[in-house]
Amino acid sequence: NTVAGAEFDRFRGLLGNMEVRLDAKIHKLLEQQLRKNLEAADRPLMADIAAMKQQAAEAAEELRKFAEVSRQNDSIWTSLAQLAARLEEMQLDVDRLAGAATGGPGWPKTR
């Protein structure tokens, strides 16, 4: 009876050890599979992120170009405003000369 009891205890110990090793192996396999699944799921996300970074870089370049064009347009508008002011001065000079030549108000007639 004690031999059977000792044999039973030894068998229970072996089963316990097998259970611990099997549990560790199952956890390791599950962890490996989970890691593979996550990596597989991450690939499309990483591709999407890379595409978004590229789009952001392109948008930043477009914004830089737009800012440059806007700056150039500001210069053009400033130049046009200066030109308009100068044309207005020239028109006043022409009007004065025409007034002087025709004896307009405030000018004696030259003919």
Structural class: mainly alpha
The count of helical stretches stands at 1
- Which range best describes the helical content: under 10%, 10-25%, 25-40%, 40-55%, 55-70% or over 70%? over 70%
Strand content: under 5%
Topology order in helix (H) and strand (E) letters:
H
Rg, alpha carbons: 46 Å
How far is it from the N-terminal to the C-terminal residue, by CA? 153 Å
List the helices and strands and how they pair.
Blueprint: H1 2-102
How would you portray this structure in words?
The structure is a single chain. The protein has 111 residues and is an all-alpha fold. Helix content is 91%, strand content 0%. It is built from 1 helix and no strands. It has one helix at 2-102. The longest helix is centred in the middle third of the chain and has 101 residues, at 2-102.
Features:
111 residues, mainly alpha, 1 helix, 0% strand, 91% helix
Summarize the structure.
The chain has 1 helix and no strands.
